[in-house]
Specification:
Layout lengths: L1 H6 L4 E5 L2 H11 L3 E5 L5 H7 L6 E4 L16 H28 L3 E6 L13 H16 L3 H5 L1 E8 L5 H9 L12 H13 L7 E4 L6 E2 L2
Parallel strand pairs: 1-2, 3-4, 4-5, 5-6
Antiparallel strand pairs: 6-7
Helix pairs in contact: 4-5
Length: 218
């Protein structure tokens, strides 16, 4: 979301467990941004973070799809940590943000899901795909918050994004397994900033599929 939120005039708080990556992102955004190191699986750390009472919340923390072993062969602690990061953390952050948003006259929340949460096929990390499916469904159920509290909750659902790691992983695959070009990172950031600004959207889920134009699923 980097320069997009900065361009909107937002004072950005970058929260990440990765100190180097988070600090670099804040530096790229510019003087309007600051970095806070946070483990989003830690409830008290999330509570401390959300004390800043944001009017815009982008729930982008997540990951774990490449971890092995996964459910059911992994330990309970390992697969539950993925659910905590991908579902519990954004739910808690949203819950804590709502009072401040309502007091400020409204706000916008964008949950970042994954195509791993769509469909009925197998997935390498069942706990990750289940958490992302729940996040997508959660978003749609919260559409009434727009009229009740003035808070719009949306979800963007990207396919494989062309991050630095994603590009390396795709390049390492045999050509026959690579599939369409990955979703450009700029497409994801543009989609998030568009949902933040679009007052007509509430509870909607935007799919960013590889090789296709963005489209709403509901």
């Amino acid at each position: 979301m980097r320069s997009h939120l900065g361009a909107l005039g937002a004072a950005v708080v970058v929260a990440d467990i990765d100190a180097d990556g988070g600090a670099e992102t804040a530096e790229l955004i510019g003087p309007s941004a600051r970095f806070v190191q946070v483990d989003m699986r830690d409830d008290e750390a999330v509570r401390s973070l959300m004390a800043c009472q944001p009017q815009i919340l982008v729930n982008n923390a997540g990951g774990g799809a490449v971890l092995t072993p996964c459910f059911p062969s992994a330990s309970v602690e390992r697969w539950s940590a993925s659910i905590d990061l991908n579902l519990r953390a954004p739910m808690l952050a949203l819950d804590l943000a709502l009072p401040g948003m309502q007091a400020a006259g409204g706000g916008a929340v964008v949950n970042v899901g994954s195509t791993a949460g769509l469909g009925f096929g197998p997935h390498v990390s069942p706990e990750y795909s289940a958490a992302k499916a729940a996040l997508i469904r959660l978003t749609a159920t919260l559409a009434p918050l727009s009229s009740q509290l003035g808070v719009r909750v949306n979800c963007v659902v990207p396919d494989w994004v062309a991050t630095e790691r994603g590009v390396r992983e795709r390049a390492a695959l045999p050509p026959s397994e690579r599939g369409p070009e990955q979703v450009p990172l700029s497409t994801l950031t543009t989609a998030v900033s568009s949902l933040i600004q679009d007052d007509s959207c509430a509870g909607r889920v935007l799919l960013l599929d590889r090789g296709a134009e963005p489209r709403f699923l509901n």
